[in-house]
Amino acid sequence: MSPTGKQTEKGGPTYGVGTAPKRPGGAAGSGGPEASAGLEAPAGKAAKDGPQPRSVRVVLLALMIAMLLAMLDNMIIGTAMPTIVGELGGLEHLSWVVTAYTLATAASTPIWGKLGDMYGRKSVFLISIVIFLIGSVLSGMAQDMGQLIGFRAVQGLGAGGLMVGVMAIIGDLIPPRERGKYQGMMAGVMALAMIGGPLVGGTITDHLGWRWSFYINLPLGAVALVMITAVLHLPAKDRSQVKVDYLGAALLTVGITSIVLVTTWGGTEYAWGSAMIMELIAIGVVALVGFVVVQTKAAEPIMPLHIFRSRNFTLMSVIGFLTGFVMFGAVLFLPLYQQSVQGASATNSGLLLLPMLLSMMLVSLIAGRVTTNSGKYKIFPIMGGGLMTVGLFLLAQMDTGTSRLTSGVYMAVLGAGMGFLMQITMLVAQNSVELKDMGVASSATTLFRTLGSSFGVAIMGALFTGRVQDEMAAAGGAGATQQSAQLDAASLAKLPDAVREAYQVAVSSGTHAAFTLGASVAVIGFVAAFFVKEVPLRGAGPAPAPADEAAVLDGKVPQSA
Question: pTM of the predicted model, to two decimals?
Answer without folding.
Answer: 0.73
